[in-house]
Amino acid sequence: MNNKYFNISDTLYDITEKYKETIDIFVNNGFENLKEESQRKSFGSLVTLEQALKTKKIDISTFENLLNEVIDKNINTTAVDSQGKNDLEDYKLKIQGLLPCPVRVPMLNAFEKFIANKPELKNSINYELKAASMGLDWLKEDLKNGSEKDLSDIFISAGFDLFFEDELMGQYKKSGVFKDITGLKEYNKEFTDLKDPKGEYSMIGVVPAVFLINKEALNGKKVPESWEDLLSEDYANSVSLPVSDFDLFNAILINVYKNFGMDGVRKLARNLHQSLHPAQMVKSYVKPEPPLITVMPYFFTKTINERSPMKYVWPSDGAIISPIFMLTKAKKEDELKEIAEFFSSKEVGEVLSHQGLFPSINPDVKNGTEDKKYMWIGWDYIAENNIGELLKKCEIEFKKVNLGMS
């Protein structure tokens, strides 16, 4: 992997000294001794990142992405563009959105390489592709107050609320602003039902949610194998949910509502133990009151230490997915086609799938999850319902139950 910030031959001390924000990542993944400065200097100065990860049997590429995520979030949260400027109005073509944190750096590297030898693109394009952890608030205000003329030409992000709320992307969707110009006639055989039948929205991949089970906390309870199992009263106050990861949490809420009704949402809220960041989730068994079950992005299962009591389960009724959408303006099809084809390409798909465990929709990518099931709400359900309003209702009910008001 081509890291912007460190090499695997760097010592743990070199990395943590230069990027203090990485200390928690190391500590939460089995390197508790790095919490103390004296240990970072003594032990950390003698061990390289590669040696340390091999000793713990932690996947190197995955852990590199974790480190890149936290470093990137800390020092590279301003807009990134091909000319080093932040004024999108200076350019003919504009791209905005969020990329999954673990793959943002390699995806940007690939994109910069793609446009480097295309002067016609390099000199006319500007983009703000921030880390998903930054949230969408910076985009939402622009969408509420803007017009089609001010709208960026391409949007990329996971989730539902941004893309279907009437006051946000929904208003432009109804006006026929967007068109799928990726050129893909069909999606990966795992995702044939994800292709928009109206040809308006595109996708580049998905973020699957799976279960992480703390075997030491089961106390005779059965391992939940499905989302239906997860809603059982047996797991009251025992489930950690990615509440702060709005894209994935909203996908979970809307799918639970569709399949189990508002009662299912209430049961999910009843079972909430706490909300953890995925980097904390993989080491949550060391907490004073560890959750029995953690719902987390599939990506973070690769950081589980083999010797930990944590076991991951792919839900038998399907991993709920948060789609990574890409919206492109129909009026600029000719100018945007090359870019849309790049983001939906096998190259980008393999970055998503192989480096981030975010399965790609590209038909030529082998995701390694061909035997797995997914849970997707479906385009018919989206067409028949106001997704933005449903999400608001689900969120209100979830909070009411969680706060003991219902």
Automatic annotation (TrEMBL):
GO cellular component assignments: outer membrane-bounded periplasmic space
Record flagged with keyword RNA-binding: no
Residue span, DUF1858 domain: 7-63
Keyword presence, Transmembrane helix: no
InterPro entries recorded: DUF1858, ScdA-like_N_sf
Recorded GO MF terms: thiamine binding; thiamine pyrophosphate binding
Gene Ontology BP term (one): thiamine transport
Keyword vocabulary terms for this entry: Signal
Domain of life: Bacteria
Full protein name: Spermidine/putrescine ABC transporter substrate-binding protein
Species annotation: Haliovirga abyssi
